[in-house]
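Lab notebook page, bench 4
Experiment: in silico fold of construct C2
Operator: M.H.
Input chain length: 121 residues
Purpose: comparison with the prior construct
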Amino acid sequence: MEDMIRGTLPWSDGSGPYCESPYKDLAAAIVLQAVKDYIAAIRKMWSPKVSTKKKHELALEKMEIEAFFHSSWYDTLCDIDPDKVVYNCRLRAEEQEREAIRKQNKKRVQKMLREAEDRTE
């Protein structure tokens, strides 16, 4: 079997994004995707535009991701405290939500100023 494999694994020279083995890169990517999904689910749950049914689905998704963070598989992939990950995800979601609201408000103010200028001309 080894004779049939002639190529090298990606990042086998240590040049990968984490300069580790491809398996560690994959493990990091899995955990990172779970973090992104968790943050997205939290932010969507906060949206007033989301229906009650969708919020229920998002709450289930959030619980599933939290269960992943506290699973033995997560322990195999990563040695970061899962409670810290969950806490930091919530903080990150709050930061992103504040930034999104700030940008929306800035756009509204700019639009109102343009409309006011157009009326005065």
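Observations: The chain is about 75% helix and 0% strand. The helical segments are 22-46, 52-69, 72-77, 82-120.
Next step: discuss at group meeting.
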